[in-house]
Amino acid sequence: MKYLSGFGAHHESEAIPGALPVGQNSPQKTPFGLYAEQLSGSSFTAPRAHNLRSWLYRLRPSAMHSSFRRIVEGQWRTAPCLEVETSPNRLRWLPQPMPEAPTDFVASMATFVTCGDARSQRGAAVHLYAANRSMDSRVFYDADGELLIVPQEGALTLATEFGILEAAPGEIAVIPRGIKFRAEISGDARGYVCENYGAPFRLPDLGPIGSNGLAAPRDFLAPVAAFEDRHAPMEVVAKLGGHLWTAQFDHSPLDVVAWHGNYYPCKYDLARFNAMNTVGFDHADPSIFTVLTSASETPGVANVDFVIFPPRWTVAEHTFRPPYFHRNVMSEFMGLVHGEYDAKKEGFLPGGASLHNAMSAHGPDRASYEAAIAAQLKPARLESALAIMFESRYLFEPTAHALASPTLDKDYDSVWSGFEKAALAPVAEEKK
Question: What is the DSSP string of 185-212?
Fold first, then answer.
């Protein structure tokens, strides 16, 4: 599979040589009689550095379809979603089971938490999917937010308006707001989706790290143009205002023959993340592992961050090396792609999830803590796990489905039970 390299760069691609107009975007007569369409991911007057748009040249106008009508949302929810009371309790879920009935990517989507307000374009939602069939004659687009897809089991082939992306476990795919796509699978597929209502994801600033480190723009890959010339009934499902809508097309809407611009889907291999860490002492804040960020109006405070904890070296001396006990103004939703997370030796399983909301204390379980304080602190390679985190300035509010799920760990608090009281007696004796 061929891809175009570079995050946020201006790309151009044509499936048929000569399909892209030269010198202007919308000539009176386009090559091959294609229909020119501008897709804007930002307001027209956004500053040049933040202006997102692409020009598409397609077989038919995308406006050519029937009226949309409402359909049931299933377990898909959108902020604000106040189905249940949000408590300060730490929450954890086991992996979601695969469906027994044929279920595609969109139908399988189950929202576990939401935050902010989609209509105000702030906040996010985290969904889990577990699917066992391709979307076939169905296409989807999300007008409420962009989708950051993290496969955990089974690869996805994402046929988009811009071309084809393949995303396997260990990779991510980003589908910007409004772009149509179809998810194809072979066998079972399961994973996580962050629906970002706010500013589009971008690479974080590097600050004192300098010019290199974390995720590199060159490692983000965009699809080359690949169109479907398919004249057959096709259902298009749209998400807008927290509801799902359906319209009938008599052709495939994935019929873009050529495109150019800086608003497009992309994929990224998380193994290419260049982890930065302490080589002296103390455990670095998790912000050092940020892959993508959606900025808010407050500098340095994210609408939502996408963070990973990848394989890496740990070398800090005289240091408690796993994540420290912690309370945070931000809210954290975690998942595990594979392996054993170093702060939770049991119970936090691949495909599972956990929620630690603002100022709710959390940290390593007792077994992880005792192993860490007894360990010989030699340089060690953490190879076994790839964990992910979505972190937001807003309160993550669980859905009714999440709290009623049979996968909810009702005994999660017990992982922090049994810690011994700190022994003050020797210190007191010394002072005497």
Answer: -SS-EEEEEEEE-SSPPBPPP-GGG-SS
Cβ neighbours for 121, distance < 8 A, ≥ 6 positions apart: 197, 198
Laid out side by side, the sheet with 69-71 consists of: 69-71, 243-249, 234-240, 138-142, 181-184, 156-160, 163-167
Is-above-0.90 flag for pTM?
yes
In order of 73, 230, 252, 361, 370, the CA distances from 19 in angstroms are: 39, 18, 19, 57, 64
In this prediction, residues 225-232 reach a mean pLDDT of 95
Q: Give the separation between CA 354 and CA 90, rounded to whole angstroms.
A: 8
Q: What is the mean pLDDT of residues 300-328?
A: 93
User: What is the secondary structure of 262-315 as a DSSP string?
Assistant: S---EEEEGGG-B----SSSSPPPGGGGEEEEEE-SSTT-EEEEEEEE-SEEE-
C-alpha distances in angstroms, 224 versus 27, 147, 228, 265? 23, 20, 13, 11
| pLDDT, mean of residues 235-259 | 97
Q: What is the pLDDT of residues 51-70, one digit of tens each?
A: 999 999 999 999 999 999 99
Q: Which residues are catalytic?
A: 283
- Rounded CA gap, 209 and 213, in Å? 7
Q: Is the pLDDT of residue 367 over 90?
A: no
Backbone angles phi, psi at 284, to 5 degrees: -70, 150
In angstroms, what CA-CA distances link 295 with 216, 234, 285, 306?
A: 18, 36, 18, 11
Domains with residue ranges and CATH for the chain: 67-253+264-269 (2.60.120.10), 271-408 (2.60.120.10)
d(CA 378, CA 388): 26
